[in-house]
């Protein structure tokens, strides 16, 4: 085949390629009229867990994938629309991606593919009531919007099937997410709903949720680990994530057998949320008051943060550094220098240990070629790396303090 023909085929093939993140439309519908409301649409953050690392779909023009959920019961509709589909006979056997196969295997069986049937099913949301035990209720927007948080276990009636529909969202919003084994009774679930009135009746719309696994801790305790926290896009930037995390904390603070609360591989965004909630809580403790912060991170802080808010030692130190930055006058050269030096010394501890281990290894080796291969990092390079690491950390801390200032 001539190179010109190959280029033509390549160009045609590329014209049938679309970003899966762009092609997918999510909606949480409260009534049938919302089907045609484009303001209800929200997009996935990622799609590689369904469509591969390239996050592309091949074989369609003007592709639109519709994943609609009823806001309460999470009844699901899955539709695919396009203006043209690639013909393998006209394009050297290139096959279009099987969109239905890829998405249907991550949806709970029983989803609708007929939009009319789905809209008829929406009427049942009027009877939906959240599963589980009400743990917290609050209002935002000067009392105009009301919210409730419920705690569920795998034994909670009707919850497992509901969770199978709910957890499909994590694939599109949490990297490296996986579905939870609902047969494991160590899981706890905290579900956030907006409570609203429509047509004279009280209704609920799912807004987000968190999952926690209760690990055993010797000799007869538990150590809860937060696994997933998700606030759905239509409800973000409202302070709901902090309310959800704070509710989760308050539930475990009352548990005498809980040692502390950990987090499984937190994202940068979740770490900021966690920092904000922990700083907001710990700044009320005597050991974290301004007159104590200049004295350094103490055992008293570790003990009090753990006892009062189940904050572990590593996280308590972050809280300390954030609050100390808050009380540091960064325009006072000596104050600011002392703060930076304190944090950098902490950041440098793993590096110093690594260099000591490397030196001991070199001293034990007799082969000079192997010794030469084990090189030490140049001191100037290390200082540059340490300074960059510090600046990134201070930027994270400043963002937490900016949010704290809005309270």
Automatic annotation (TrEMBL):
Residues 351-403 form a coiled coil. It comes from the Eukaryota. One of its GO terms (molecular function) is histone binding. GO terms for cellular component: chromosome, telomeric region; nucleus. GO terms for biological process: DNA repair; subtelomeric heterochromatin formation. Residues 274-325 form the Histone acetyltransferase type B catalytic subunit C-terminal domain. It catalyses: L-lysyl-[protein] + acetyl-CoA = N(6)-acetyl-L-lysyl-[protein] + CoA + H(+). The active site is at residue 264. It is found in: Nucleus. Residues 17-175 form the Histone acetyl transferase HAT1 N-terminal domain. Residues 53-55, 213-215 are annotated as: Interaction with histone H4 N-terminus. The record marks 187 as: Interaction with histone H4 N-terminus. Its EC number is 2.3.1.48. Residues 184-255 form the N-acetyltransferase domain. Gene3D superfamilies: 1.10.10.390, 3.40.630.30, Histone acetyl transferase 1 (HAT1), N-terminal domain (3.90.360.10). Keywords: Acyltransferase, Coiled coil, DNA damage, DNA repair, Nucleus, Transferase. Belongs to the HAT1 family. This is Histone acetyltransferase type B catalytic subunit.
